[in-house]
UniProtKB/TrEMBL annotation:
The keyword Acetylation does not apply. Keywords: Coiled coil, Leucine-rich repeat, Nucleotide-binding, Plant defense, Repeat. Residues 519-942 form the Disease resistance R13L4/SHOC-2-like LRR domain. One of its GO terms (biological process) is defense response to bacterium. Residues 174-333 form the NB-ARC domain. PANTHER family: DISEASE RESISTANCE PROTEIN RP, OS12G0273300 PROTEIN. InterPro entries: Apaf_helical, Disease_R_plants, LRR_dom_sf, LRR_R13L4/SHOC2-like, NB-ARC, P-loop_NTPase, RX-like_CC, Rx_N. The keyword Plastid does not apply. Belongs to the disease resistance NB-LRR family. This is Uncharacterized protein.
Length: 948
């Protein structure tokens, strides 16, 4: 479903479903349904046209008609959904004898009544559809054109900001200038054709920064141009603007697009040019513009700005613009308050209400947000700031600066495909500063029918793609944190479209619209049509027994999240029956419940479940065998904690075997308090053999001795067994493998594996090389217990590539953790000679040598690394007492860690084991670590934690 067309996208297929013979509708009802389909298709086409026009450019009659059409579609879908739910009916828990007979007879009567009622409802809807269609004709809404707008594009002001008024851009400006002025061979941050791409969301100051760089550098080139592009650009006009900036004087109007490209290439052929292409929105426009920018090997440069990460990656030379620091945010804020001179404002040394910090926190370092908030406070006494901050946000359009800000942000919104607009608007139901996991959010979208179905792809895969596109466009951040400006924008749009209504202390009325976010507790019986219900009892005083008993009435419910709700004192059969009636439930997420066992009893009835997450507290995890789980054949995600009571060997094996029936499973997070015997491990392997769609596998054993949690690798090397080719994440926590499971972890099969956590008794050179050859590995958490010397030799990789010095092993690894280990000598180098060694790191009872191909220890020769060229974060543990002793090895001394050739290193995390060490030894270990960070060209951030 997309909000612009209401429920029509999902309603029309459902109307087709009603025409099937299995529902036994009478002839008149079927005729009316066919009429409705034709009329609604016509209405849908009109709404498709309307959605392409910004709200502020639509005439009032068009807005009113579109809202009425959407509301009609919601009402119609409610009727159809209610019919489909009732005609199929919820499956009760087991009934025997005469009770089962009477229930069957009752169901037959109910279905006959339901069939009669829908015929009457459809007839009523038919009259409303006729009225809406007639109104469209009456008001002549066939030719929908945007209303006339006045005023300049508010973004133009960014091009004429005085240099003296710029705050906080010095560092970014100098960084870009450095990238643009260095030679091609020396600067890896510039793309092959001298392109740098600045990316960031609207209002971050990309245009202002680009103009500052342009003004600084334009005198160093033969010719220059600064050209804005924007959404849905007229590329002929873009090429004309470039030519005009380049002082090409002839009749441009007579040239078509191809001729303009040829003219530009001809003019730039032998010139050293600097061109800024500002505000590109899509890769297609960039590819066309790039055709005109001849790569003439003359040291030319191109700077582009974009809100879209995909465009920046495509163009190359990506530079992600960061938000302003707190100090620069404060300077900009007071500069705007005081007319340009922030030093003239005398802030009190102590603010009881901390209002300045609150304002800056709301702005989150975004210049446009800071300027907007300052405009709201300008001229107001300091005592009124708190009231203004509470009562006025970015949604207040009475202020011209706020209106301009919303216009700039709305460009990103209207550039979204319709379904992404719907998903973005849905985020308006969450409060400010709310953090939500990606997976639950995607399941909510699926429950609300926001995710379009595609043959051959799972709904979650498509929904995850929607999420990633919103991140790619910088509208939301990873983890789904939304900037207050964006939140106010989508709340404003949602309110105007009646898409979301928020009930809080200031709004007491419950509207009739379908999509309602309940932020103040209201009786569940009032919302029988809701699809998504989230209850967090930490923030509400709720009569738990009363409201849970209303669940059986929510037959449309598809997503249920209960957090810290507390089920003690409620009859377990009652809870099982309440949840068991929710036949259409897709997601059941129970966190922190006192007794998840009560919910487990009804699992076998929830056959449409796609996601099941049962995470009770340690003392009350699952202790009852969820026998019905094998019936959940549609399940894609399962997270479950198996409690430490009630699980004998037979029960555990029965559950593990049942997992093999869940062939659609993509995600399995299994936490078990009872350890796995060899037999249970074999059962797990056999179940995994069936799970060919698995992408995320996490197994954690909480209890058990070291011996119990030491798994025999032979079970994982059974004939014909291999992990799913789709596997992206494999975590085995508190589990030690006796040998490296080489038949499972195979680079040729696990082409997508990006995250791996593994604990091994031993690993040899060949096995370590296998890890290094995993093509997509980005995160490696490795724990080793062997006392043997380990090597990872580049000679094991393809010879030709090794001779060329290309990246071979761990080529995409971003983070490497070496956990608390026994004595390990791990050598990652070219060969067995000292010239192949580098980066000795003293671990607790361990020395790890990481590095690249160069002559001599710590030479810093700058050759192309063959190992870990992309590692940004390195974590390990050092033994302060044995640090010097352990580093006195054939491969290097302890005076330097020789990390210089890890070209991408940004963070070092070192845990220092101080047990038995004196103060001098601890200080020496700290000094070596600090020295390693200081001499590295990147000056990586160093974190040290001492423990005893």
């Amino acid at each position: 479903m997309e909000f612009a067309t209401g429920a029509l996208g999902t309603l029309l297929p459902k109307l087709g479903q009603l025409l099937l013979g299995e529902y036994n509708l009478h002839r008149g009802a079927k005729k009316n349904i066919k009429f409705l389909r034709e009329e609604l298709q016509s209405i849908q086409a009109a709404l498709h046209v309307i959605r392409e026009v910004p709200l502020d450019q639509l005439s009032e009659p068009v807005k009113i008609w579109a809202n009425q059409a959407r509301e009609l579609s919601y009402d119609m879908e409610d009727i159809v959904d209610t019919f489909l739910v009732r005609i199929q009916g919820p499956d009760p828990l087991r009934k025997k004898g005469y009770k089962k007979f009477f229930k069957k007879m009752s169901d037959m009567v109910t279905k006959a009544k339901t069939q009669h009622e829908i015929g009457k409802d459809i007839n009523d809807i038919k009259e409303r559809v006729k009225e809406v269609a007639a109104r469209r004709q009456r008001y002549k809404l066939e030719d929908i054109t945007p209303a006339k707008t006045t005023g300049l594009d508010p973004r133009i002001a960014s091009l004429y900001t005085k240099v003296a008024d710029l705050v906080g851009i010095d560092e970014a400006r100098e960084e870009l200038i450095s990238r643009l002025t260095k030679g091609d061979d020396d600067d890896l941050a510039v793309a092959e054709q001298g392109i740098v791409s600045v990316v960031g969301f609207g209002g971050l100051g990309k245009t202002t920064l680009a103009k500052a760089v342009y003004d600084k550098l334009k005198g160093q080139f033969d010719c220059n141009a600064f050209v804005p592009v924007g959404r849905n650009p007229d590329l002929k006009k873009v090429f004309k603007d470039i030519l005009i900036d380049l002082h090409m004087h002839f009749n441009l109007d007579i040239l078509d697009e191809r001729q303009l490209i040829d003219k530009l290439r001809e003019f730039l052929e032998n010139k050293r040019y600097f061109i800024v292409i500002d505000d590109i929105w899509d890769t297609k426009s960039w590819e066309t513009i790039k055709l005109a920018l001849d790569d003439n090997n003359s040291g030319s440069r191109v700077l582009i700005t974009t809100r879209t990460h995909e465009v920046a990656v495509k163009a190359g030379g990506l530079y992600k613009l960061q938000q302003l620091s707190y100090d620069n945010s404060r300077k900009l804020f007071f500069a705007r308050i005081c007319g340009g001179n922030y030093r003239s404002y005398h802030q009190p040394a102590y603010e009881p209400d901390g209002i300045t910090d609150k304002i800056l926190k709301k702005c989150e370092g975004v210049p446009l947000a800071i300027i907007t908030m300052a405009s709201l406070l300008e001229g107001k006494p300091r005592e009124e700031w708190s009231e203004v901050h509470r009562s006025i946000g970015f949604g207040n359009k009475e202020n011209q600066q706020v209106e301009n800000t919303m216009k700039i942000l709305s460009l990103s919104y209207y550039d979204l495909p319709p379904r992404l607009r719907t998903c973005l608007l849905h985020l308006s139901v969450f409060p400010e500063d709310y953090f939500i996991e990606k997976n639950p959010l995607v399941w909510m979208w699926i429950a609300e029918d926001f995710v379009q179905k595609e043959q051959g792809r799972s709904s979650f895969e498509i929904g995850e793609e929607y999420f990633n596109q919103l991140v790619n466009r910088n509208l939301i951040q990873l983890g789904c944190h939304i900037h207050d400006m964006v939140l106010d924008l989508i709340r404003s749009i949602s309110s105007e479209l009646n898409f979301v209504t928020i009930l809080d202390k200031n709004e007491g009325l419950v509207p009739s619209q379908q999509d309602i976010s309940v932020r103040r507790w209201v009786a569940l019986s009032s919302f029988q049509l809701i699809r998504v219900l989230s209850i967090d009892a930490n923030t509400r005083k709720i009569d738990r027994r009363c409201h849970l008993m209303h669940l059986r009435n929510l037959l449309h419910l598809r997503y249920l999240w209960l957090s810290n709700y507390g089920l003690y004192g409620i009859n377990s059969n009652t809870i099982a029956e309440e949840i068991g009636t929710l036949k259409f439930l897709q997601t059941l997420d129970v966190q922190g419940e006192d007794n998840c066992n009560q919910i487990v009893r009804s699992l076998g009835l929830l056959t449409k479940l796609l996601c099941l997450r049962l995470r009770g507290p340690v003392t009350e995890s699952i202790t009852i065998i969820p026998d019905g789980i094998r019936k959940l054949t549609s399940l894609e995600e399962l997270e479950i904690i198996l409690g430490h009571h009630g699980w004998d060997e037979e029960a555990l094996r029965r559950f593990i075997k049942a997992l093999g029936s869940l062939r659609e499973l993509r995600v399995l997070r299994l936490v078990s308090y009872p350890p796995f015997s060899t037999e249970v491990q074999i059962d797990l392997v056999e179940s995994l053999r069936n799970l060919e769609k698995m992408e995320h596998l996490s197994v954690k054993i909480e209890w058990g001795t070291l011996k119990e949690n030491c798994w025999d690798t032979s079970a994982w090397e059974a004939a014909g067994f291999s992990l799913s080719r789709r596997l992206r994440l494999l975590f085995t926590t508190w589990i030690t493998f006796t040998r490296f499971p080489s038949s499972c972890i195979n680079p040729r099969r696990l082409a997508y594996l990006s995250h791996l956590s593994l604990k091994l008794d031993a690993i040899n050179e060949q096995e370590l090389t296998i890890l290094g050859m995993l093509p997509e590995l980005r995160f490696l958490d490795l724990t080793l217990k062997s006392t043997a010397e380990m090597k990872c030799n580049t000679a094991a990789a393809p010879t030709d590539a090794a001779k060329r010095g290309e990246v071979l092993l761990f080529q995409k690894l971003r983070r490497f953790n070496l956990n608390y280990s026994e004595k390990v000598w791990l050598l990652l180098g070219k060969d067995n000679e000292s010239s192949g060694a580098s980066f000795p790191i003293g671990c607790v009872h361990a020395v790890v040598l990481l590095g690249s191909e160069w002559e001599g220890v710590c030479s810093g020769g700058g050759l192309v690394p063959t190992l870990m060229p992309c590692v940004q974060k390195l974590s390990f543990t050092v033994d302060a007492q044995g640090f010097k002793k352990n580093n006195e090895n054939p491969y290097g001394g302890c005076s330097s860690l020789c990390l210089e050739d890890l070209a991408s290193l940004q963070n070092i995390e070192a845990d220092i084991d101080c047990m038995g060490a004196n103060d001098a030894e601890v200080e020496e270990a700290e000094a070596v670590l600090r020295g390693a960070a200081n001499v590295h060209p990147n000056h990586p951030k160093l974190g040290m934690i001492k423990f005893w």
